[in-house]
From TrEMBL:
Keywords: Hydrolase. It comes from Flavobacterium ponti. GO terms for molecular function: fatty acyl-CoA hydrolase activity. PROSITE patterns: HOTDOG_ACOT. Belongs to the acyl coenzyme A hydrolase family. This is Acyl-CoA thioesterase. InterPro entries: Cytosol_ACT, HOTDOG_ACOT, HotDog_dom_sf, Thioestr_dom.
Length: 170
């Protein structure tokens, strides 16, 4: 299976915040943002492996800044690393200033997707080639994040999470 560049999975979704998507403070609902990120991540995962992909885990979400009604929100999704059937997808969320057009980072998240066959059984995916400094940094940290996610889900014993344990020994 040919490895693929991380950049080949890049997915960019841009959309407005409408009144039906806001909370009583007129800011975007967290759940609406999660759904937008899930969609973008799903497309990025599919672009990497060209298979059916399902969300296995939402590993990390930071709602650092609220996003106001009427904002133009851009969700960027890109694969950071693949393993056997699973793929870690990074999401960066940007908000565009109406007057200047400048973008500022509002939120970020990390999702795990798994490629499956028509019966829902996991299948192998191509390896990832990271190129930029950020892609390489995210690639390097992916194994310990996978182990943390598996430990929290009760699918891995903490003792077996060698990469994760090494982080605490440093
Ligand atoms: C995701 C799913 C396919 C995993 O199936 P499974 O029987 O647990 O298969 P496995 O144990 O072989 O795991 C498959 C891969 O997922 C990874 N994985 C499973 N749970 C994970 C978690 N919580 N965090 C990170 N990775 C996880 C495994 O490590 C494995 O990765 P690898 O093949 O790259 O090593 C299965 O749980 C599923 O179909 N879930 C429902 C998905 C869905 O419907 N999502 C939308 C929810 S509304």
């Amino acid at each position: 299976m040919e490895p693929r560049k991380a950049s080949q999975s890049l997915t960019i979704l841009t959309d407005l915040v409408l009144p039906s998507e806001t909370n009583p403070l007129n800011n975007l609902f967290g759940g609406e943002l999660l759904a937008r990120m899930d969609r973008a991540a799903s497309i990025a995962a599919r672009r990497h492996c060209r298979r059916i992909t399902v969300t296995a885990s939402v590993n990390h979400v930071a709602f650092n800044k609220s996003i106001a009604l009427g904002s133009v929100v851009t969700v960027e999704a890109k694969i950071s690393r693949s393993f056997n059937s699973s793929m870690e997808i990074f999401l960066d969320v940007w908000v565009e200033d109406r007057e200047s057009g400048n973008r500022s980072k509002a939120n970020e998240a990390i999702y795990t997707f798994v490629a499956v066959d028509d019966s829902g059984r996991p299948v192998q995916v191509p390896a990832v080639i990271p190129e930029t400094d950020l892609e390489i940094e995210r690639f390097k940290g992916a194994l310990r994040r996978k182990q943390l996610s598996l430990v929290l889900a009760g699918k891995m014993k903490p003792n077996d999470a060698t990469e994760l344990k090494a982080l605490f020994m440093e």
